[in-house]
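idk why but the lab printer keeps eating my pages so im just putting this in chat instead. protein + zinc ion:
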Amino acid sequence: MVKKPVISMKMSPKAVSPGAASPKAVSPKAVSPKAANARLRKTLEVSGHRFTEQRAAVYRFVCDATTHPNADEVFQQVRGEVPGISLATVYKSLETLVNCGLASKLTYSDGSARYDGRTDPHHHVHCVSCGRVRDIPGHLSPDSLEILGKGLDGFRVSGYRLELTGFCSECSLETDTKGSMDPPN
Ligand code: ZN
Ligand code: MN
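predcted complex ->
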């Protein structure tokens, strides 16, 4: 088995070149709820999907969350808002949003997936202990990408995905506390 590198470079064409129907890459956090709804309705209809309250609730939560929730976390939150919604509907809504370019899907080697309401280019830190994913505020300089792309024989780079892995502050703290609570015999 290949050891997971600290910085993984994965091609993620969907995140880089979403379909023709996708909206401009903007951070949804910057727009009002009303504008977000209007944008959702328009984008769904352009891609041949209906606007539904379920989809709107899922979209709102994914846009507001900074935690990159998985489908179950979205379900737990949205079921309080939309009674009777099922996990399957939440899952299908999430996939619809991704297909329309309204959200990004972050997939992991263990088969899990998280959803991101941000569709502008940005990178993540991933805690290998609790699985939480957060945005990285910084960006790589175009220089470093050029250097990495050099010497790739015939490979046409269309995008990249960068993820820093490690332990979040809470998990680091837990490990430290555990360590001090279990002194060696
Ligand atoms: Zn953690
Ligand atoms: Mn993100």
